Amino acid sequence: MAGVVIVGVGPGIGVAVAKRFVREGMSAGLIARSEQTLKGAADALPGAEVFTAKADSTDEVGLRAALDRVAEEYGVPDVVVYNAAIIQPDAIGELTVREHLDAWAVNVVGAITTAAHVVPAMAQRRSGTFIITGGMPEPKPNYASLSLGKAGVRTLVTLLDQQYGAAGVHAATVTVAGGVSPGGAWDPDGIAEQYWRLHIQPRAEWTHEVLH
């Protein structure tokens, strides 16, 4: 049973998205770098078809292997969500080159690795949705690395649409404009609804960025 795969699942948006999709009868493939995080996410989905795989989004070999394990269990996914990010306050000049590269590896390169591994199979099938959790609709000088990273994934979505949109792959980003907290303006369940709406959009009405 194909379904949703979430890379970088966690107790906020990741679990909320998983809940929204399994509510529609989908399976959920959950990928995170911590066994504890995976257990917490799986426990939040009682009764659902859930498969967990441990991988760090910056480990290309490990991430590709985890995606393969999920595909072996459930087939080529209908939806893949890249939800990993390093969220930290920093300004230009505060990070070392190594620290910038580490942030970029999670915020952008992991999404590239994920897309490169799963989107061609979606295109071959002529259907699929690839969504990245975005943010920073406007750059913020006190969140320099995150601003750069979210600009990067916004561009990645455009590139994916140009390369694979005609083959039936809907690439999009949900741009979250503030701090996520239950019951607040950026409630994770409300945000998760945007992922579902993107997935079910008719092709003639595809949008590639939703600001929440």
TrEMBL record:
InterPro entries: DHB_DH, NAD(P)-bd_dom_sf, SDR_fam. One of its GO terms (molecular function) is 2,3-dihydro-2,3-dihydroxybenzoate dehydrogenase activity. This is SDR family NAD(P)-dependent oxidoreductase. Gene3D superfamilies: NAD(P)-binding Rossmann-like Domain (3.40.50.720). It comes from the Bacteria. The lineage of its organism: Bacteria, Bacillati, Actinomycetota, Actinomycetes, Propionibacteriales. GO terms for biological process: siderophore biosynthetic process.
